[in-house]
Specification:
- It is a single chain.
- This protein has 466 residues and is mostly helical.
- Among the domains are: 1-144, Serine Threonine Protein Phosphatase 5, Tetratricopeptide repeat, CATH 1.25.40; 300-386, Serine Threonine Protein Phosphatase 5, Tetratricopeptide repeat, CATH 1.25.40; 405-466.
- 75% of the residues lie in helices and 0% in strands.
- The chain has 22 helices and no strands.
- The protein has helices at residues 3-18, 36-51, 55-66, 72-88, 92-104, 110-126, 130-142, 149-161, 165-179, 185-198, 201-214, 219-231, 235-247, 254-266, 270-283, 290-302, 306-335, 339-352, 358-371, 375-385, 388-429, 444-457.
- Helix 1 runs antiparallel to helix 6 (110-126) and helix 10 (185-198) packs antiparallel against helix 11 (201-214).
- The longest helix is centred in the last third of the chain and has 42 residues, at 388-429.
- It starts with a helix and ends in a 9-residue tail after the last helix.
- Mean pLDDT is 86; it is low at 1-13 and 20-27.
- Residues 1-26 form the signal peptide.
- This is Tetratrico peptide repeat group 5 domain-containing protein.
- Keywords: Signal.
Length: 466
Amino acid sequence: MGIRATLKGAVLVGLMATMGAGAAMAQACTETEFSSKTGQTYLEAEQAAMVKKDFNTAIAKLNSLRSTELNCYEEGAVIKLSAYIKIENGDRAGAVQDLLTALNKGYIPAADAAQTYYNIAQIYLQEEDLGKALDYMTKWQQAGGKPDRTQKWQLAVLNQRADNYKEAVRWAEEVRAEDGANYKQEVYDLLLYLYNQTGQKAKLAEVLEVLVERNPTERKYWDAIAGNYFADNEERKAFEVQKAMYLGGLLKTEDELMRVVNFYNRFNAPYHAARVLEKEMNAGRISKNLDHLELLANLYQVAREHEKAIPVIKQAADAGGGGAMYERLGRSYADLQKWKETEDALNKAISMGGIKDRGNAYVLIGQSRYERGDRAGARESFKQAGNNAGRSWIDFMNSEENTKRALVCFEVQSAWMNVENEAKICKRLAVLGEENIPENCKTIKERLSEAEAKYNATPECKGQAT
């Protein structure tokens, strides 16, 4: 049954409850019964309308009654039955007019006035006239009407539809309180909407907690929680919600999954960002294109997971990354001190083109050769670099070689000087006589000549002052 049919039924029940009030008629009317002739005609009209649903006959008989002189009791009954017939026939405006006439003339007892106001409110609600429906709901309460749970819910919905959010919140909260532990999804959904509209964030958060607990797989509630955190610039909390949604399998689209990747990266968790990105690319939920491969390589490199970055960079190079990706591959190999692979990757990068700084690439090739002991090859690469870094490497190698030569010469020269000092001591001891000098002094001349000859024959000592 539709809402209009339900409302119509409620109005008809209400009308029937107020018809035939008899002795309880308002003080303005002192009559309490029909005359015999009038009563018979009214009874026939009532039977035709309520039992047989023969409204044409009922209307004809009511018209015949109106053409006669009626007392106040009879006129009130005719007006109320007319309202009933008009509701059944869809003439809601006419029904309202009849009911208001009955109220204004005192034909409806004070005890039934509240129910009549409620009936009028329901008629206006059928007409989608929310303003008047709410007006008469207010009059109903002012006349003593006490909303039950159903009517409180209706007031909450009506006020929400009329954008009276503050009133809607009041009634919805009363409904929730009345429900107690009896959870009603529609009540919480309405409160969710109303708290959001009125900016009551603390209450909104509390309702969302209940909704998520009750409906852990309902995406819209998680989105609402994250949205609130975003609105308050609490991105860390928003990230935690997004992470929970991801772990719960609620995020499906590439944009949603990439948001999680970017959140991990933003909050200094590049390794976790890389793991999510790689997992989702392998599963086909994130496209394995050059941009995403490059991002994955970046994440692994920032996380210093160079072993994991290398196969990704290779894929990116094969996906059209060109020389730039091979340059990155070479740098990754260098970080792992895989020098042969470093040189191979960088040579390929230079041959393919597209790298930003060829000079730095040659420097890294030079370093890879240096580390493998190819000093001549290293010098050649540093010269090809033609930049400060290359020149610094050459200066370093020159200094290194000069130092090495100086050390070789120093060792030979020190040995010669030691023998010379020994010869001076032996010369002083010569006064003791041949038979009394130490054994080492007997060979001093030969050893001194050998030391001098070795110094003069050492290439590293050429040009050195003695």
